[in-house]
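Our working data are protein records whose layout never changes between entries. The record below serves as our worked example for the rest of this section:
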Amino acid sequence: MDKVIFDTDPGVDDALALYYLLRHPGIGLIGVTTVFGNAPVAVTTRNARFLLREWGADVPVHAGAAGPITPDMPPEFFPAHIHGENGLGDHPIDMPVTEVADEAAQYLVDTIRAHPGQIRILAVGRMTNLARALQIDPGIAGLVRDVVLMGGAFREPGNITPAAEANIWGDPLAADIVFGAAWPVVAVPLDLTTRTFLDRRQLDRLARDGGPGMRLVADLSQGYVRFYQGVGYDGMLVHDATAAVYLTDPDLFTTVAGQVRVLSDGIAMGLTLMNPADRQGPAGAWEGRPAQQATLDGDPQAILDRIARICTG
């Protein structure tokens, strides 16, 4: 069973990804680390604890970064119009928001050191916790089995600016550090996730067939669905759950490899640029960077089917 740490900012689609991880028989979720993003970190931490409690999962939650390491970032924009004021679609939550200690980066270092070669990291928010863990102890990169992240837009336009996907844009320097470390990274970007669309009828069927756990996901997703209806979809994109499926079923994805840089200032801040492995030319800013992977294609229907099977099985 794979040992997985889930780095997350719940967030509605984060909730579906978390439920998938908990339900999958091949995943041993050993820890959750939280970061700012869809809401402030105290809220995302409360949300992770609430979801785990509701699903009866005894998994420790470690709060992390409250803001980016990228200097001179614009003020943080929390997308309440997408994820609700409480981050979970304004679904009632009977758990208060409290102050949290910033411990996720050190937790990552300690856990990776305790399980060399075994830890898989799924990161579906800002990459700040991972970057700060590397700053504490760069040697952990050689001890991680792999890092799968939801983030980036390599050939498609971004979803927060024309250049940038939200997770990368929120802390572009952190993302550049993560892509440049000597651990294997697979990015699951908008190029694929914008084609993994769970329509309303499918969501209703999952809620009907999946029992109380999946009904909670469907209930807290209703505001998310209304947002997507406003932009022409009758359902919701499942960005983070798509990345979760890569952990268990990489055969459903098509990857390309190359060095990746992330721009951290200017009009294209947050742009993910890949230098393909077969490109011949000056090294320049790519010098010494490892080749990483991005899933620019895949089988969206098979990915959705896998989510449905695990979450209702």
Observations:
- The mean pLDDT is 94.
